[in-house]
Specification:
Helix content: 10-25%
Largest sheet: 7 strands, mixed
Distance between the termini: 28 Å
Strand content: over 45%
Shape: globular
Strand order of the largest sheet: 3-4-8-9-5-6-7
Radius of gyration: 15 Å
Order of helices and strands: EEHEEEEEHEE
Structural class: alpha+beta
Length: 119
């Protein structure tokens, strides 16, 4: 279960749908024999800017995944989500992410670096 900003209890599925609506996309993380992929499905048009890299961060036991573009003063965050600890461990050996973006019959695929920042 999750809660809204107002403290109302909602299901995790509803929370995921609300978050996707606010961001303008939903996502799936897929790991297999061929590597790791992030699938992004956009409600509107696919953003022109490609993500430059993904970063796995473990913040005192709470791992998450960031997707970003490099900017003049650092990074511009384009994706973030918490990930299970088991997935964080599996990603330690990987160096690339296959990004699959889709929206309204359009699709783009590309590969980016997977970086790691661990405790």
């Amino acid at each position: 279960m999750s809660t809204t900003r107002e403290g109302r209890i909602i299901s995790t599925d509803d929370a995921s749908r609300m978050l996707a609506a606010g961001r303008g996309y939903s996502h799936e993380l897929n790991i297999g024999e061929k590597g790791f992929a992030v699938d992004l499905v956009y409600a509107g048009a696919i953003p022109i800017a490609k993500l430059d890299a993904f970063l796995v961060v473990n913040d005192t036991g709470f791992p998450f995944l960031l997707g970003y573009t490099r900017g003049g003063y650092g990074i511009n965050l384009g994706f973030n989500c918490y990930i299970p600890s088991a997935l964080e461990r599996d990603l330690r050996e990987l160096q690339f992410v296959d990004v699959n973006k889709t929206a309204a019959g359009e699709s783009r695929q590309y590969r980016v670096e997977l970086l790691h920042s661990l405790d």
